[in-house]
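Subject — a protein and its fold

Tokens — whole-number codes for backbone shape
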Amino acid sequence: MDITLTQTTNRQWVDLVEEYSHKSEPIINIHREDTRKFDAIFIGGGAGGRFGSGYLRAMGGRQLIIDRWPFLGGSCPHQACVPHHLFSEAARELDLMRWFSGKLWFPDATNLRASILQMVELFKSGRGTAHAFMNWQSKEQLDLEYILNASATVIDAHTVEAAGERFYADNLVLGIGAAPLSPDISGVGLHGVYNYSTFIEELDFEPQRCVVIGGSKTGIEYSSFFQATGCPTTLVARKPLMRTSGLHHVDEDLRTYVVDGMRKRGLTIIEGHEPVEIRGDSEGHVKEVVIRDMSTGEQQVLPCDFVFLATGERPRSEHFQQVLGVAVGEKGEILVDKHMRTSVPNIYAIGDLVGSPMEMFKARKSGVTAARNIMGEESELDWTNYPDFLHSTYEISWVGLSEEEAKQHFENVIIIQMPPKGVPLADIPLPCAEGTMLYAFMYPELSGFLKAVVDGDTRKVLGFHHVGFGAKDAFQYLDYLLRRPEGLTIDEMGNMNELFLNPEHFIQLCRLRAGSPNLRDL
């Protein structure tokens, strides 16, 4: 279907995306009257491909996106980050209902059981709107050219075949993402075993007992959701939670608060263990998981009817390695420099295809970085330091150095923390703000956690760490302030204007120490 000359609406795209999800016919939007060669063909229209294309087009270049799905935006709005945000919001609401069961105006939630299957169906019923908007915006507002619902075959460094045609460009930008990894054990093909993708597409029953394998962000977030619905859940991880290689700068006090909170909510967490086998019943459905203590070798059987695999992803680099000869790392990631250039001239790679961190910010910024370099504007991307977050039943955000890391590099580290070190959590209802006020007055130990790490000699703030609600957006700006050449001092922080009650309390707490020439812990 060629829609190039047809002015579309968002509503029409909702129907088109649904229709073409069941077809093999391509959706084509190409300006045939434009005789210029493409400056870049973006293989993959996820976050990196779409934002990179948008930036290149805005700079006056000509681009083409080719994507195998009938929509732009990639896996995030379809199966990955958007559903987990929906499920995490549900977990937060369910958690509140359980703690306040039968109190104030809250109904008795003793036997509350929310449907996991219903939440999946809710998400699937609404995701088409996001797909439709990105297709519509990319065509009608950004003037992007694209071929959707068609696989791309790379012929050489300047030639790509799709929808029965060959297209030529000065540069190729590779961005087809990563695929979920499964542990190398028997039973992963049984009915009732899912990863984040198949969970959305294939769940067809209501789980009654869940085992999550893997202590990644995905493992923490989905296990918290499953437990919050009332489905008894066990999380099995090789390493202590939030100590995996994919998470950096996690403060130990923050980690302890989060993990203890997950256990308070009934989640069973088994660290230092690995899966051995998933066993099924006579009908081929999951009935139990066998795990092994990595220290002693002792095995344990976990009964369940649902297994969620959160064991990471591997970049889809094989085709490009074979056809183009791009260099790859030990985990299959395409190796790039800070300009997003691969080992092959005129070939760029972006997003999850270049490995960890597999984060939205990196996908979008790497696409834009590639576009700027293609158009002759030198640009570099450093993704080694960035603000980070995850969900349990809380929002958990951090940026900069942890206390432990700071003490390895600085002699006079000052900590501003709430609740203060050594004070029992139940004795102080801080930090509290919108989202935790009810907890602060009835369950102070659940009202959250915050920490600022400061170099007492230069007075520069080195890191911020927060557990609670409503503070996540602030970390985008705190990251910028910390990474300025001049940094951010405790005095500047204390001189800011805060919105009261603000979620993270950093400004007012810094103000309490900023007047002192000799900084002390708070």
Remarks:
- The longest helix spans residues 116-141.
- The chain is about 30% helix and 20% strand.
- The longest strand covers residues 165-174.
